[in-house]
User: Which sequence fits this backbone?
């Protein structure tokens, strides 16, 4: 049975990609964020993304932006999530913010609604403890850009039921995606490895071992990676990188996860990467 209505909380880069992907796969989407300005920006970005897809897929049928946007309701009011069957949360990787979000979701959504945390590092079991439906909380770690990435890292929390996992897999299949199921641990598999790699690459830059371009070129030419670690950091967002590495440092109490001072400095300066227009590289306009 197809899931009809999906809530997406957080209209940042990941939330925008998710809302677009869901609408393009025939779902009704409720996209919620804290301000009308953020939602207006999300609306424009989704329209631009669809046009961008049409530019690169001239020989394929491309969705009409107006039709896709008609599938998405943009709102600052959580009340519109009361009829959703599935909610995917993508808010900032800060525990105090997530606590407030899940308190609202748990109070508004039906008991049958599944909550999926699209988090980079925070344990799913800890997130589930904020709700009265721990068996219906799962991790779904999407990759950026969401519409173009076919694989999702799915995380089973301590209480996550087999039924919840099955429903989550069904939704992903409807979105044209596959999943790899892993057990709950801070950072899971992908970010427990990736955040260390990016953080260490920033240390190499700080220690003047190599330039930005040289670090990335080594990974692309020697290992066949499509992007180097510093390019990847800009794509993810340096603020998100810092939040994630801080969660790992706090969770494991291991000095190998200590955030690089250069990373902290760049985040303090507002150099977040692609979304701000400046990170390790310079971009033509913020995303």
Assistant:
């Amino acid at each position: 049975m197809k899931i009809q209505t999906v809530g997406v909380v957080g209209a940042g880069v990941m939330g925008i990609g998710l809302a677009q992907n869901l609408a393009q796969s025939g779902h009704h989407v409720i996209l919620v964020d804290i301000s009308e300005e953020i939602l207006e920006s999300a609306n424009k970005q989704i329209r631009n993304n669809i046009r961008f897809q049409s530019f690169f897929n001239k020989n394929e049928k491309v969705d009409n932006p107006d039709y896709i946007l008609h599938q998405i309701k943009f709102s600052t009011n959580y009340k519109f999530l009361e009829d959703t069957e599935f909610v995917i949360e993508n808010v900032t990787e800060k525990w105090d913010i997530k606590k407030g979000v899940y308190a609202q979701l748990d109070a508004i959504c039906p008991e049958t609604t599944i909550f999926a945390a699209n988090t980079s590092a925070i344990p799913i079991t800890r997130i589930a403890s904020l709700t009265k439906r721990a068996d219906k909380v799962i991790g779904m770690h999407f990759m950026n850009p969401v519409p173009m990435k076919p694989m999702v890292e799915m995380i089973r929390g301590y209480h996550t039921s087999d039924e919840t996992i099955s429903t989550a897999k069904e939704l992903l299949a409807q979105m044209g995606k596959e999943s790899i199921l892993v057990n709950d641990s801070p950072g899971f598999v992908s970010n427990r490895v990736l955040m260390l790699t990016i953080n260490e690459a920033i240390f190499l830059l700080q220690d003047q071992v190599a330039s930005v371009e040289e670090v990335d070129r080594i990974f692309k030419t020697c290992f066949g990676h499509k992007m180097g670690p510093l390019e990847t950091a800009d794509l993810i967002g340096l603020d998100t990188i810092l939040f994630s590495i801080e969660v790992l440092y706090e969770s494991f109490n291991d000095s190998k996860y200590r955030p690089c001072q250069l990373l902290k400095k760049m985040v303090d300066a507002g150099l977040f990467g692609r979304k701000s227009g400046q990170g390790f590289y310079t971009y033509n306009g913020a995303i």
Remarks:
- The chain has two domains: 5-183, 191-268.
